[in-house]
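Design review, sub-item: ligand-bound model
Attendees: FS, YL, KQ
YL presented the inputs for the pyridoxal-5'-phosphate complex:
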Amino acid sequence: MRGHEHGGNIIGIAEQYGLPANELIDFSANINPLGAPARVKALIKNSLSAIEQYPDVEYRHLHQAIAKAHQCDDASVIAGNGATELIYAVTRYLKPKRALLLTPGFAEYRRALQHIGTKIIDYPLTKAAGFQPDLRLLDTLSTIQVDCVFIATPNNPTGLMPDAQFMQSLVEYCERQGIALIVDESFIDFLPDNRGLIPQLAATKQLYILRSMTKFFAIPGLRLGYLVSGNTAGITEIKNQREPWSINAFAARVGEMLFDEHDYIAATHQWLASQRHYLWTQLSTFPELTVWPPSANFLFFHCDKPDLWRTLLKHRLLIRHCKHYVGLDECYYRIAVRSEWENQRLIAAMQQVFTCG
Ligand SMILES: Cc1ncc(COP(=O)(O)O)c(C=O)c1O
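KQ shared the predicted structure:
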């Protein structure tokens, strides 16, 4: 992938194709369509004077809130300006000489590693293997020398959740071999019953878990994420190394209250269960498509018909093409699950596209 190829590039695409940005429906960024919780907006409105002071440079209250939510020690936690800041921060801290990346995967791991000159070894997740990693990954790790592995659970763009037993084996293998394992759980909040690997932190020193709050709580413009690890000395070093005040005062305050948004969390899971089922069943009816079973708030598919992206753009629907992902081409797409009427509009447009030829 080159440059900044991400979903949600509404302004860039509208400019490039001469379209009014406000008329596009954005299926290309995986953001909760319920919007930010009402209490978040109220808190920001009511704390405008927070801009007149520096935020706490140690983000004590925010770290305490995250630690409390995950029943771990504050010393295991560092918050960041989105998970993205922490991908770069943990990479700079680890300084791996050689790193393994699963492809396709989120672009920023590669960019962060390239910044510090790490040699990257790609591990292709193939269509034949259902785009899922399995124990063959451990065989590969035993034959190549790497200091670090990145894996996303669920993965972006495939939306697939690796097998839990496999993840356990990977954690144990990396612990034994002294390989840093960075598990990106940025989308795991969308899986109601999955607590991810944070409960295992105490037993590991090689595991680094990334979380994002921007997708689930619909605050990509505010920016907030965190990293947790049993390597508390490493977390302290990352805190000492990074630039001060990278999280703005609003994001820090908002982060302290998000874990208590139980009604919003329940409403999100309810919306997702029904709308993802709708999209999955509808997309599965098109013979032109191969759709992979989603686990998070987006769906991944292959389309035999060329140029679906451009055609849907004419319908003012922006989906994510995956041609810039290493290991994929322009026939693969990712779409976010959105609100009922938006999802219906997408399906209606696709019915038209596929029936009209
Ligand atoms: C797998 C994955 N990790 C991390 C991020 C970055 O999230 P944030 O907005 O918290 O920086 C993204 C954003 O798309 C992502 O897809």
